[in-house]
Amino acid sequence: MRFGRTALQWAAAVFEIGNSLREARLRQALDFPEIEQTTKIRAKYLRALEDEQFDVLPAQTYVKGFLRSYAEYLGLDGQLYVDEYNSRFVVGEEETPARPRRSAPPPRGVHVQSRVVLLTLLGIGAVTALVIVAWTRGEPQKKEPVGLNSTPSQPTPVVHPKTAKGTTVRLIVTAKRGNCWLEVHSGSATGRILFQGTLELGQRKLFAGRKIWITLDRPENLSTILNGHTRLLPRGGVKTLIVTARGISPGV
After folding, report:
1. How far is CA 190 from CA 21, 118, 168, 214, 251, in A?
2. Cα-atom radius of gyration of the chain, to the nearest Å?
3. C-beta of residue 233 within 8 angstroms of C-beta of residue 222
């Protein structure tokens, strides 16, 4: 029995940008202040994306950029959301602002009056400067002998900036190409175990901490998003990974 639409076409027809983003955020128990601190997108703009109130954002370019960053932070396909926004809301290219018309030049009489006023002000300024110079040179300043009733200047203390605390790592791991066995530790290879088991195809896990140590058997089956940015795992059959805020590197 044939239907009018395939399952894929039906899923695309009911795809909603805002509800999909909201469900992904609530699934991971994330709040707007935490997302705002990492993505640098204001909370009111994140809320507007979930409510599909795109007119709240300054322009379409901001909508597309914020939409891509927010979706990828939640572990979603950012390009898919941008394409959906283009197909539903973008009618044409944004209009370029019209260039302001140049005003007509002022009449010649105005230029003459302005020049007279400018010369007068320059003359007054020159006379005032001469009077100040003559008065200053007429009475020499008294210099106090060195060491008499003088207080030695104190050296300015050097203030060393405080060392910034380490940035928290937020790592989303997804089994996109097949199953992968993982053993995840916090801090080091012997630190507290965050996860141990097989991540099956399509499953996703979120890990957080200052430093994460991962042992795995099939790294080619995984995709990772580190602090809202997609990261490629090191090649060459690496089975141990060290994850910090700077990136993902092979373990020793």
Report:
1. 36, 79, 19, 11, 13
2. 33
3. yes
CA 244 to CA 208: how far, in whole Å? Answer: 10
Cα separation, 211 vs 214, whole angstroms: 10
List, for residues 100-135, the tens digit of each pLDDT value.
444 445 555 555 567 777 888 888 888 788 768 666
- Which helix (H) or strand (E) is 69 found in, with range? helix 60-73
Please give the Cα distance from 13 to 176 (Å, whole number): 24
CA gap 120, 29 in Å, rounded: 72
Pairing type for strands 192-199 and 240-244 reads: unpaired
Q: Go through the domains of the chain in sequence order and give each one's CATH number.
A: 7-89 (1.10.260.40), 169-250 (2.60.40)
Rounded-to-integer distance, Cα 214 and Cα 204, Å: 15
Tokens linked to 214: 């991962």
Residues 6+ apart with CB under 8 A from 210: 166, 168, 169, 187, 244
Q: Phi and psi for 209 in degrees, rounded to 5?
A: 160, 180
Judge contact between 250 and 208, C-beta under 8 A: no
Q: What whole-number distance in Å separates Cα of residue 91 and Cα of residue 248? A: 41
The tokens describing 251, both together, are 């373990």
Closest CA to 82 of 70, 98, 74, 97: 70
pTM metric for this prediction: 0.37
Q: Is the dihedral of CA 211, 216, 220, 225 positive or negative?
A: negative
> pLDDT tens across 172-183, in order?
989 988 998 889
